[in-house]
Amino acid sequence: MSEAVLEKPKDRVSYHDSVEEMLVRIRDDGLSSVFSRFDEQEKIRCKFCLQGLSCQLCTNGPCRINEQKGPEKGACGIGPDAMAMRNLLMRNIMGAATYAHHAYEAFRTLKETGKGNTTFQITDTEKLKWMCEKTGIDTSQSINEMATCLAELLDREMKVNPDQHSIMVEAFAPKKRKKIWHELNIYPSGIEHEVQNSIASCLTNVDGDYVSLAKKALRLGLSTIYTAQIGLEMTQDILFGTPKPHEVDVDMGIMDPDYVNIAFNGHQPWIGAAALMKAKTKEFQDLAKQCGAKGIHIVGSIETGQELLQRFEMDEVFCRTDGKLAGN
Questions:
Q1: In order of start, what are the domains of the chain with their CATH numbers?
Q2: Residues 138, 174 contacting (CB under 8 angstroms)
Q3: Rounded to 5°, angle at Cα 135 from 155 and 223
Q4: What is the pTM assigned to this prediction?
């Protein structure tokens, strides 16, 4: 490297020398990183946007609110507190919908695995039985039958409406909290209903009350936890095994030029886990060697890398992860 890396933490973006070296390489190659792009945006940030007092949702806008000099309301009549809360709620909706999508894929994968239609197997049978006991599913069935029933139940839970009771909420939520949620009108339905209700409330002139919007955000959060996230995490444990502490290598220098390096970047583990299983076979390792490589290395990035990292131990194929850095 032609340029020395600064040693003082205040002049660095990371404590890791490898990150600092990569940033110099990125700059010299005429590329940008999240750090350089952030610095450029810092110079032109809008103070109204930073305060949540800017709205571009309808054709009467964009609108901004200035509580000192005016205007004090958007064109639709929404006030500053409601505008800020609505902006926050929309971000909550994006996060909840993303978890719902991940959960949908997890439950679908579990069901098809139970039917013998995927490359995966039921790994943590004890957790499967425990989840079936918690949700009232017959545990005298075979492992595959239990997996199929649990997947169908978890999928239904995401669709629970306000006139129904959620099995997952009743099974996992603290008893004292459930009473309070009912009193506050934030007891959750399924995530699909809560996402739909929340986004509909963000439409112009549908809900301009910041307290009402805040309660919908709280209800959406609870729904995400109990009708998507818990089932999602338990499903991944059932399929790939419950995570256990083990030693791993984590850094930017993950690519070995002597190997075919396949990096999985994203938020879900399915393709990465399937590829890792295939890459461990002699057939695929031999294909790489026929092309002049020493073999195949699977590496992880972002949440996909973290999912693989916590469930699979390092070996000659799954060698390391870059953590979250490569996505930037």
A1: 9-42 (no CATH), 80-240 (1.20.1270.30), 260-321 (no CATH)
A2: no
A3: 50
A4: 0.88
Name, in order, each residue with C-beta under 8 angstroms of 12's C-beta and a sequence gap of 6 or more: 5, 6, 20
- Residue 324 predicted with pLDDT over 60: no
> Do residues 228 and 99 touch, judged by C-beta distance below 8 A?
yes
- Name residues whose C-beta falls within 8 Å of residue 274's C-beta, 6 or more positions apart in sequence: 119, 120
Give the pLDDT confidence of 199-244 residue by residue, as tens digits: 999 999 999 999 999 999 999 999 999 999 999 999 999 999 999 8
Query: Does the pLDDT value for residue 253 go beyond 80?
Result: no
Element (H, E) at 260: strand 260-266
211 vs 261: CA distance, rounded Å: 51
Q: Which helix (H) or strand (E) holds 319?
A: strand 318-321
| Residue 238 DSSP one-character state | H
Q: Sign (positive/negative) of CA torsion 85, 198, 327, 302?
A: positive
